[in-house]
Amino acid sequence: MNLKPTLITLGLLLSVVFIAPAQQFKALVFSKTAGFRHQSIPDGVVALKKMGETHVFDVYTTEDARAFTDENLAKYDVVILMSTTGTIFNDEQKAAFQKYVQSGKGVVGIHSATDTEYEWPWYNQMIGAYFLAHPKQQTVRLQVLDKSHPSTFHLPDTWLWTDELYEFKNINPNIKVLINADETSYTVAKGNGPNHPMAWYHEFDGGRSFYTALGHVESAFQDPDFLKHLYGGIWWAAKGHPLK
Asked: What is d(CA 20, CA 118) in angstroms, rounded to the nearest whole number?
């Protein structure tokens, strides 16, 4: 009996076991919409999957809110709200999400995550603000106010960006603003004035929350600076490492 092929196969299997890298953390990407649905959602989901491959973390994607149970959420280190809109959770799912954050876990909101759950005050405080309005898509001069966060390490002090530029209401005064929109550089809808946050983070209710208003356009998810910005926020929310 020739055992050579069997031994070769066994060797290959063992090599896969030893070569496969350990994952840094697990991310749940949730993209359910009950309002406007952004065309960029598929691009964002694909980009996050590729990001997981590049940066060695697990990515699970769903649009099913039944994933929000105590048992299931306990598997993840960070929940990424990929341009969610509207009322997307029932009472039991809200309770599970809240317990998840209180257990010390992280949340990342992308673009219309602030256009979500308007009747849930805890969510408003956790995500940091609610969407108010936006003008037509155009280019803005973004002011990078804080480079101590991994989402902004790489960015210039002034960053030209083209997107759908959100304006906000019910802004949590405790958020730490990373990037501000210079309203003198574009035509606003209603405007937030000189203090117009576009990306922020904070520790909240035992956990961590990072939000970026960028990401309406599909091309954002192919832009290296934006992807580094997004990954820095995900990494911080998932791991909770001290800032530099």
From this structure: 43
- Asked if residues 94 and 120 have their Cβ atoms less than 8 Å apart, the reply is yes
What are the residue ranges spanned by the domains of the chain?
25-239
Q: What pLDDT is recorded for position 70?
A: 98
Question: What whole-number distance in Å separates Cα of residue 181 and Cα of residue 187?
Answer: 11
Quote the crossing angle between the two packed helices 224-239 and 41-55, to the nearest 10°.
Answer: 70
Contact 87, 33 (CB under 8 A): no
Share of the chain above pLDDT 70, in %: 91
Q: Which CATH class is domain 25-239?
A: alpha beta
Torsion of Cα atoms, 193 then 194 then 198 then 204, to 10°: -90
pTM of the model: 0.92
What is the rounded distance in angstroms from the CA atom of residue 192 to the CA atom of residue 189?
A: 9
Q: Confidence band (pLDDT; 50, 70, 90) for 97?
A: very high
